């Protein structure tokens, strides 16, 4: 039950800078996901919060208290490792009792705490089993229980689901989110899987190349990406991003998308913002899910490249290579390869980015 | 098509036959280098045969004496004395080498300046040919030698201990040489074990508040159990066979003060030439060592199941 504050946090390894000035505030009981591709600095950030690595500069504050010089055993941090780091030569009970025993709790208190946490995590039936042969969801519960028993102020989870096969990940996600609600712990979760971040986190911190790109709720990050990186990274399939030039038409400001033709006129607010920004070269973005697909009508004209039918929905791919578009349509959508269609993005879902800076051009909400 | 069950049995038999044929050369080799000498040893141990007889060993049955050699060795006080000294060497050297090796291995888990250099220096004794090490220590422990020189310098007195001619000190000197030469092996094996301890488990333990000592006892030691038993088993067996260094330093003397079992067997073989008796002693020791090894292996298998 602690707030975490990262102030101007920087970490360099020799000449390589893993993290360039990170500022982040994580509220009490909040579940924040640090999301980004590998090498983006998310694990470095987490290791510094845990105290495994010292920051090159900047401060880490727990409830306003500077953690510099506080060794990792004394920070009150629970850490769930990627492979859980269960002590496989011990029983479940010995694993759970490890922290309390290391802290020298009296035996009666240790036993009571173990019984309580085992009951809570439904580990009681396997308390005296060797932990080497447990299934992965039990290992996850055990890893969480082993940290939770000493009541850490915050919980750090380092990609705990990356070794789990895809089919089981959904179950584990649900369980993890459920546990977080029960514990009401401040949790920081590192992942490169946006689905994990979107489904579990209260807020997502998207990172790339050691720079924090955007912090927001999953919906904010999904709906209003601040730059091209976030737009591309969040969403499966990601946002359609087409380079173009702003063009005044008799029906208002639109974007000339080259081979795709002219975009439908931009909504007034966005057009205003684009005029204010004064940008000419832009990137036109829209979510594959938010379009109207017709044979004839307004919108981007493109030929169907190929069609992926994946049951609940159909993904229609248009164009080729660098100027490709993806559209998520109803499963029953009848389209044939080679056919030219009109793609009209839902006006409210259209996003514009400055091509040079990559930043979003935002209209008044 | 025949039922699959019959086919499998036939294929199994076929495969086993092929396996037998493929390993036949090796089996013949093992027969000649291990089984044959063993049977020969057993045969000779039941006779009074000696190379001085002038007859071939296969005619040893002419000197058949049944189990007389075996009953003789029960009353051979020199043999028991040698066995006792061998055990003393084992009981002093192996724990000393183990503790020193473990301590050094723990030190080498962390980085420190000059680690590579120290590492190379530490491994050097192991590379020295034992006979050469014997000469080195023979020189070091002379009464006018460097050991006394250093002791003189430290105490300020004129130390002239006759290390290798004093019955007790000679054994001490021999044990020091053994510890010097074999601590590196212990160190190397234990370091390999410690390096293999999963880093994240140690980190997890640290995050749970465990001190270094707690981590050592609860994570590191249980994790290197198997390696630890292997290291101990190797050194116990090897120390039982202690010979080269010792023989060159003292020749088993003064008197029989440093006569271990290997030295005793060597002397009986080359000086007394009573090979029937030697065969009996060697066989008994072989059986004793085999039992020891099997026990160690069993413990190891059990530990392997746990780790």
UniProtKB/TrEMBL annotation, chain A:
Gene Ontology molecular function terms on file: ABC-type transporter activity; ATP binding; ATP hydrolysis activity
Keywords assigned: ATP-binding, Nucleotide-binding, Sugar transport, Transport
Entry GO CC: ATP-binding cassette (ABC) transporter complex, substrate-binding subunit-containing
Transmembrane segment boundaries: none
Subcellular location, record wording: Cell inner membrane
Membrane topology recorded in Swiss-Prot or TrEMBL: Peripheral membrane protein
Signal sequence region: none
Domain ABC transporter: 4-234
Entry's family note: Belongs to the ABC transporter superfamily.
The name this protein goes by in its record: Multiple sugar transport system ATP-binding protein
């Amino acid at each position: 039950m602690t707030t975490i504050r990262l102030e101007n946090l920087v970490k360099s390894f020799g000449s390589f800078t893993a993290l360039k000035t990170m500022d982040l505030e994580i509220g009490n009981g909040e579940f924040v996901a640090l999301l980004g591709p590998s090498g983006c600095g998310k694990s470095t950030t987490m290791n510094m919060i845990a105290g495994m690595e010292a920051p090159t500069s900047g401060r880490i504050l727990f409830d306003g208290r500077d953690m510099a010089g506080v060794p990792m055993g004394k920070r009150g941090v629970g850490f769930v490792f990627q492979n859980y780091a269960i002590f496989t030569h011990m029983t479940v009970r010995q694993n759970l009792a490890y922290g309390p025993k290391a802290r020298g709790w009296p035996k009666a208190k240790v036993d009571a705490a173990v019984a309580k946490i085992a009951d809570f995590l439904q580990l009681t039936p396997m308390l005296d089993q060797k932990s080497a042969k447990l299934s992965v969801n039990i290992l996850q519960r055990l890893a969480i229980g082993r940290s939770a028993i000493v009541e850490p102020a915050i919980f750090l989870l380092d990609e705990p689901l990356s070794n789990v096969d895809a089919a089981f990940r959904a179950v584990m996600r649900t369980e993890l989110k459920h546990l977080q609600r029960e514990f009401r712990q401040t949790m920081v979760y590192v992942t490169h899987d946006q689905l994990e971040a979107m489904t579990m986190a209260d807020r997502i911190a998207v990172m790339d190349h050691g720079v924090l790109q955007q912090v927001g709720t999953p919906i904010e990050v999904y709906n209003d990406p601040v730059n091209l990186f976030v737009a591309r990274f969040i969403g499966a399939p990601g946002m359609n991003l087409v380079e173009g030039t702003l063009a005044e038409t008799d029906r208002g400001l639109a974007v000339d998308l080259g081979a795709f033709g002219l975009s439908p006129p931009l909504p007034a607010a966005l057009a205003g913002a684009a005029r204010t920004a004064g940008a000419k070269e832009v990137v036109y973005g829209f979510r594959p899910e938010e379009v109207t697909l017709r044979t004839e009508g307004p919108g981007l004209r493109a030929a169907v490249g190929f069609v992926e039918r994946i049951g609940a929905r159909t993904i229609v791919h248009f164009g080729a290579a660098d100027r490709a578009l993806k559209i998520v349509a109803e499963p029953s959508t009848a389209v044939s390869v080679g056919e030219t269609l009109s793609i009209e993005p839902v006006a409210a879902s259209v996003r514009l980015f400055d091509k040079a800076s990559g930043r979003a051009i935002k209209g008044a909400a | 098509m025949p039922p699959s069950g019959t086919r499998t049995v036939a294929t199994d038999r076929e495969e086993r036959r092929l396996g037998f044929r493929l390993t036949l050369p090796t089996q013949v080799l093992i027969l000649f280098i291990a089984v044959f000498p063993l049977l020969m040893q057993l045969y000779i141990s039941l006779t009074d045969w000696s190379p001085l007889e002038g007859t071939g060993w296969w005619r040893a049955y002419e000197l058949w004496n049944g189990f007389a050699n075996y009953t003789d060795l029960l009353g051979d006080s020199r043999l028991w004395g040698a066995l006792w000294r061998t055990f003393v060497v084992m009981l002093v050297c192996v724990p000393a080498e183990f503790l020193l090796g473990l301590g050094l291995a723990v030190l080498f888990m962390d980085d420190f300046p000059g680690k590579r250099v120290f590492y190379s220096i530490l491994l050097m004794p192991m590379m020295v040919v034992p006979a050469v090490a014997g000469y080195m220590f023979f020189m070091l422990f002379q009464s006018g030698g460097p050991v006394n020189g250093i002791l003189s310098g430290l105490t300020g007195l004129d130390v002239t201990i006759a290390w290798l001619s004093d019955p007790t000190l000679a054994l001490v000197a021999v044990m020091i040489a053994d510890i010097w030469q074999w601590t590196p092996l212990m160190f190397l094996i234990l370091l390999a074990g410690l390096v293999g301890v999963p880093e994240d488990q140690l980190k997890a333990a640290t995050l749970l508040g465990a001190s270094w000592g707690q981590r050592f006892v609860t994570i590191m030691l249980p994790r290197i159990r198997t390696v630890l038993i292997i290291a101990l088993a190797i050194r116990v067996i090897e120390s039982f066979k202690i010979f080269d260094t010792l023989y060159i330093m003292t020749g088993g003397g003064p008197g029989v003060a440093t006569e271990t079992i290997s030295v005793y067997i060597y002397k009986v073989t080359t000086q007394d030439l009573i090979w029937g008796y030697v065969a009996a002693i060697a066989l008994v020791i072989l059986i004793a060592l085999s039992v020891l090894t099997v026990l160690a292996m069993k413990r190891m298998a059990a530990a392997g199941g746990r780790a």
